[in-house]
């Protein structure tokens, strides 16, 4: 199983505007098929050290994660680390690269599950996926699943950013 997955898409917008959309974690549910939103746990603007509770849904199953912003460089990069039951689960990141036709947005997921805690979280995640859709047999390849979710997220982000404002 791959421990890091990257997907990118060219979007007709500025790096700053793409960053503002992704960096406002409370809006993530607008384009993600699984993340439904976030509740900020720290006051003030979102930046390095900001904490939030991420909310997620797959089928009829819902769950939350505890997240901390680790990179917040407007127009360039935004990333956060995810923890469940006190241990690391993943790091999600977004890079924004200006190109002639717009901005290449690259989304990266890194699996941070390790040891006994990682095994426990992996087992719970599998059971959630099985309960959400028993006919699917559960998510056996987290990297492949997340790659598809990332592609959907980036396409939805592209549609949103290209539909609601001037591109440059």
Describe this structure in words.
- It comes from Halopolyspora algeriensis.
- This protein is an alpha+beta fold.
- 29% of the residues lie in helices and 39% in strands.
- The chain has 3 helices and 7 strands, in the order βαββββββαα.
- A 7-stranded antiparallel sheet has the order 1-7-6-5-4-3-2.
- The longest helix has 22 residues, at 142-163.
- It starts with a strand and ends in a 5-residue tail after the last helix.
With strands numbered from the N-terminus, the spatial order across the biggest sheet is: 1-7-6-5-4-3-2
Rg over CA atoms, rounded to whole Å, is: 16 Å
Can you identify the CATH superfamily?
START domain
* Uncertain spans: none
Number of helices: 3
CATH architecture: 2-Layer Sandwich
Pfam family, one: Polyketide_cyc2
Protein name: Polyketide cyclase/dehydrase/lipid transport protein
Organism: Halopolyspora algeriensis
Question: Which key phrases capture this entry?
Answer:
Alpha-D-Glucose-1,6-Bisphosphate, Chain A, domain 4; globular; 168 residues; 39% strand; 3 helices; alpha+beta
């Amino acid at each position: 199983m791959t421990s890091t997955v990257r997907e990118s898409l060219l979007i007709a917008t500025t790096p700053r505007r793409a960053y503002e959309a992704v960096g406002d974690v409370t809006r993530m549910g607008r384009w993600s098929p699984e993340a439904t939103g976030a509740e900020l746990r720290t006051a003030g603007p979102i930046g390095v050290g900001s904490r939030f509770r991420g909310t997620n849904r797959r089928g009829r199953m819902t769950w939350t994660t505890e997240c901390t912003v680790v990179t917040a460089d407007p127009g360039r990069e935004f990333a956060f680390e995810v923890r469940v039951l006190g241990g690391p689960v993943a790091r999600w990141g977004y890079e924004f690269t200006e190109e002639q036709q717009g901005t290449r947005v690259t989304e990266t997921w890194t699996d941070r599950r390790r040891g006994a805690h990682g095994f426990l979280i992996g087992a719970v995640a599998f059971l959630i996926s099985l309960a959400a859709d028993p006919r699917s047999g559960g998510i056996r390849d987290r990297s492949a699943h997340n790659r598809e979710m990332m592609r959907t997220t980036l396409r939805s982000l592209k549609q949103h950013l290209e539909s609601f404002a001037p591109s440059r």
